[in-house]
Design a protein that fits this description.
Its cofactor is Zn(2+). There is one protein chain. The chain is α/β, with parallel strands linked by helices. It has ten helices and ten strands. It has a single domain, classed as 3-Layer(aba) Sandwich (Arginase, Chain A). Helix 3 packs antiparallel against helix 4, helix 5 packs parallel to helix 6 and helix 8 packs parallel to helix 9. The longest helix is centred in the middle third of the chain and has 20 residues. It is globular, with a radius of gyration of 19 Å. It binds 7-[(3-aminopropyl)amino]-1,1,1-trifluoroheptane-2,2-diol (FKS) and zinc ion. The site of zinc ion (ZN) has 7 residues, from loops.
């Protein structure tokens, strides 16, 4: 299986993340992908290839163009306004304030386009986000050209980014854009399977009213975990999308047994629905020692997870999402890929 990876991920490494009322070294840090790269090479999973130039056209079609324009100039506008540090939203609109007017002031614009203040924009974030998307697009092209699967070692991740908001370490929703490109490439029905510990609220939001892309996620119960305000089982889609959104939340301490049972259930639903292609939002923060998550999967479980996904027999693009037990991120991520190839 080929991996698509760009060194430009290094351009995104904020000085700090707001966590627990303190500024800490961001959990979503460059060393994460270094461990994945090392493990890919150690296990000889396949070629590791730099992507081509990003194609923003599919992003402009799927996402809000104003949001993309914001991301492109946010840092420069922020600094031009005399702001001392990196771009961080100090607040967001209240429940009943109007969202139909976008502030002219960059501080206000940031509050409009951000949904989580732990995520900073730096001078290199826009380039890194584009490079991350380019990896996902290259993986999609590889599968469109006939490969059974491809791995996009995306950094920054994407599944919390909606069509017009960033947050949760995400800026461009790589998995969602790949799903759309699979649709544009002729796949009639595409499924996005999100195995990251955190609910992919962004991907859900983008496809919630659509019946041609199914979103399925197994994740920490939003009552107890980020993103807190999406991911409940009763969110099943709306309109054309009714029935094409599947959420399976679990509480703290959930081990692989029930998690795997949920995966089998979701896989059955995806097959009955008639998916012709698959995008996997591959986060490995369901791992027992992840510092910001609360499931109890162990490293061998990720091999089994990969096998079950591989048995679906669908052309598959894996997009890297989260995973913060840094020393194990490589083993756990590559275990999924190796399990998939074993199937
Ligand atoms: N004190 C720590 C609070 C952390 N709150 C934000 C969690 C973001 C999770 C991001 C992710 O792992 O879902 C992604 F895949 F997008 F990277
Ligand atoms: Zn996560």
């Amino acid at each position: 299986m080929k991996t698509f990876f760009s060194e430009d991920h290094r351009l995104h490494f904020p000085q700090a993340e707001l966590s627990g009322g303190q500024f800490v070294t961001p959990y979503e840090r460059p060393s994460r992908v270094e461990y994945v790269l090392a493990r890919l090479k150690e296990r000889q999973v396949g070629e590791i290839v730099a992507p081509g130039v990003v194609d923003l056209e599919p992003a402009r079609k799927l996402l809000d163009p104003g949001f993309l324009a914001f991301l492109e100039t946010a840092y420069d506008d922020w600094k031009a306004a005399g702001q001392g540090g990196e771009v961080i939203a100090a607040g967001m609109p209240t429940r009943r304030q109007r969202h139909d007017r976008i502030p002219r002031n960059i501080d206000g614009k940031v509050e409009y386009y951000c949904h989580a203040s732990e995520t900073a924009i730096t001078g290199g974030t826009w380039r890194a986000a584009q490079a991350s998307l380019a990896c996902a697009q290259a993986a999609q092209a590889e599968v469109a050209a006939g490969a059974r699967a491809a791995f996009a070692l995306c950094r920054p991740p994407g599944h919390h980014a909606t069509s017009d908001q960033y947050g949760g370490y995400c800026f461009l929703n790589n998995a969602a854009i790949v799903a759309q490109m699979m649709r544009d490439g002729g796949a009639g029905r595409v499924a996005v399977l999100d195995v990251d510990f955190h609910h992919g609220n962004g991907t859900q939001d983008i496809f919630y009213h659509r019946g041609d892309v199914l979103f399925a996620s197994i994740h920490g119960d939003p009552l107890d975990s980020y993103p807190y305000f999406a991911g409940y089982a009763d969110e099943t889609g709306e309109g054309e999308g009714e029935g094409a959104n599947i959420n399976v939340p679990f509480g703290p301490g959930t081990p692989y047994g029930p998690w795997a049972e949920a995966l089998d259930g979701v896989i059955g639903r995806i097959k009955d629905w008639g998916a012709e292609a698959l995008v996997v939002s591959l986060g490995v923060d369901a791992y027992k020692d992840d510092p910001i998550s609360f499931f109890k999967l162990d490293s061998p479980d990720f091999l089994d997870m990969g096998r079950r996904i591989g048995r679906m027999g669908l052309p598959t693009v894996f997009c890297m999402e989260g995973g913060y037990a840094i020393e194990q991120v490589g083993v756990n991520t590559v275990n999924v890929l190796e399990g998939f190839e074993d199937a």
